[in-house]
Amino acid sequence: MKIKDLRLHELQPGEAIPFRLLLLADEEDAIRKYIYNSFVYTLYYKPQKDPIAVIAISLAKEYERNGFVKYAVKKNYIIDNYSRPIVDDGVLLKDMVMLKMKL
């Protein structure tokens, strides 16, 4: 598999969410708590028409509303571990927020 054969697609409002793929990682109730407040991306490998991965990005506050608790912050984690800057809504991301949930 070559990187040039990968394609990332942001789901737009009204597009079907690939629940079948998400269910490989989470239970349906958990998915429904975060998926509608997330930016959802699907990753495709060029020869295949079905996605090979789903990425759901949500703000930490959305997670906290759903029972997660912030327990640590890894300062400069993103800057130190990624070769390119990550910018979200015009803000350079630097730290990694660690969340947990008591089951």
Can you give a write-up of this model?
- This protein is an alpha+beta fold and 103 residues long.
- It has two domains: 1-58, Aminopeptidase, CATH 3.40.630; 60-103, no CATH class.
- The chain has four helices and seven strands, in the order βααββαβαβββ.
- It has helices at 19-22, 28-34, 60-65, 77-81, and strands spanning 6-10, 39-45, 53-57, 69-74, 87-88, 91-92, 96-100.
- The radius of gyration is 15 Å and the shape is globular.
- The termini are far apart.
Give short descriptive properties of this protein:
103 residues, alpha+beta, Aminopeptidase, three-stranded antiparallel sheet, two-stranded antiparallel sheet, 4 helices, 21% helix, globular
| CATH level-1 class of the largest domain | Alpha Beta
Number of strands: 7
Strand order of the largest sheet: 1-2-3
Shape: globular
Query: Could you list the spans in which at least 5 consecutive residues all have pLDDT below 50?
Result: none
CATH fold category name of the largest domain: Aminopeptidase
Q: Tell me the helix content.
A: 10-25%
Strand content: 25-35%
